[in-house]
Structures are given as C-alpha cells and as structure tokens.
Design brief:
With 298 residues, the chain is of the alpha+beta class. The chain has 2 domains: 1-30; 48-286, no CATH class. 22% of the residues lie in helices and 29% in strands. The protein contains 5 helices and 14 strands. Strands 1, 2, 3, 4, 5, 6, 7, 8, 9, 10, 11, 12, 13 and 14 form a 14-stranded antiparallel beta sheet that branches. The longest helix has 28 residues, at 2-29. The radius of gyration is 25 Å and the shape is elongated. The chain starts with a helix and ends with a helix.
Length: 298
Amino acid sequence: MRNKTSRGKVLVGLLIAAITVFGLAATAQAKLVGNYTKFAQCPYTNLEVKKCIYSTTNSGEVVLGSKKVPIVNPVVLQGGTLQPVEGVAHFVAASNGVTLSKAAQPVPGGLAGIINCKEIKDFFLRISCEVTFENGLTGLNSTLELAKPASEITMSETNLIGEEGTALQLPVKVHLENPFLGSGCYVGSSSSPIIWPLTTGETNPPAPNTKIKGKSGELEFLEEGRIAELSGNRVVENAWAAPGATGCGGFLVELILDPIINAAAGLPASSGHNTAILNNTIFTGSAAAIRKNNEENP
C-alpha cells in the first residue's frame, strides 16, 4: 500500500511538472501578429514601458565637417519609452540589445577622397597605405552608432507632431570603416559623443549653415488607434559640433593617421559646419496593447 501511495505521489508530481513545462512552452510560443510584429524587440513586458517605438530612416544625409554622406541603407531605431516627464520620455533599450542598427553607409570617393598616401611622411606607413590602395581596399564606410546607453535617448511626441523644439535627441558616434583604418577609427566616443537634438521644426544654426526645416509627416492610426504610423517624417539639426577622428590605424599609427584624416575631412568641426537630415517612417504603439496582442496569440 505504501508503494502504491509513493508511486501515486510520483505520478502526480510528474503530471504537475508536465503541466508546468507545457504552460511555459505555451507562454514562450506566444507571438505578436499583424501590425504588432514591428514591436517584437520592444521591452513591452516591462510594465514601466508605456510606448513602443519602431522607426526606419530610409534616406537623408549626414554632413560631417567637409564630407557629405548620403543615407542609402536603412537605419532602424527601436525600443520602448517610459512615462513622459514634462513631455519628454526616456528610451528603454531594445530587447535584443540592438536599439540603433549599425547600417554602413558608403562614403562618396572612399578612402581616396580622404587620404593621400604621398603626404604620409612615415616610410612604413606610406608603403602600407600604397599597398592598401594597390589592392583596391579604398572603399570607406561610415556607420552611425549609439555613443551612450539607450536610456540617454529622449523623445517628445508633442514636439514631433507639433514641429517645434527637440523631437528626438540622440547621442551618437561615427565609425569610419576600412581595413587600413583598423577597427577603432571613430568620430565621437562614449566620453565625447556627438549630440543630435533633432527637430521637425526649423533650425537656427550659426554661420555658415543656414536654417533648414523638418516636418512631422502624415499621421495614420492602425489597430483601432492602438498603433500610430507617421510617414514622410523628417527630423533635422545643423547646429551641432563634431570632434576629431581618433583611433585610426591602431596603436601608434593613429598618431599619424588621425591628423591626416581630420585635416582632409575638416575635423573637428564647430557648430554650424555639420548637418543631419533623417527621413523616417515612425511607428508607435501602446505597450499595454502589445502585451495583450502577445498574450492572445499562443
């Protein structure tokens, strides 16, 4: 009798364990559907998150010193936002850690447009430069990256729609990528970021830049008003300053390369010499509605 009782307890325990496992599996398999799928990486399970953001920049340009880089590869900004304080909400990082996607943009003219090997006085560096160019490694990419934690990104939906004030503030750095420059060639850093107070309104830069204007775009509501789509959006800023490039070429070599690149690109560049124009489609959704959509679709 004791053996049967023990065996019964074991079976009950196994049944409970099975139910628990299947329950967890069902939870893990829950998914977003329809227009909600864009917010898959929003941290909507965090109850402090009030809105989810998914923004794609499909075109525009960044003028850094004397170099203009068109945006030809889409850049995605995604994550959540907390309850706004005085109209401004702080970001919460995307669940997969990729709050700002690293989309490389080709620099017109490539490395040849920045570096002249014959101007490098160091013999070994000059030879390395010439070998690099002879092997066709002259392509140069510019990749925008976050320079600070996602929590330092701020957004004001009021300003975004109202076309005044700062709509989106981004702390960024620009990664210059080419085999000759190594992996650590950046304009801006975590300790010295480039700050973009982007606006849909009109800028007021110092000379030589002149005023430019953004626009809020066309607003459409989806999923019975739970998701807002803002298409044709443009945020701009041309009163920001840019530091010089650092870390180009790696240890010691950077002492020679950094000044060459900075001189060729007009860096550091004070306020009034740089521009950011980002053309976007922005989706915002209620985190509560997204949680509900996830729960209803096992």
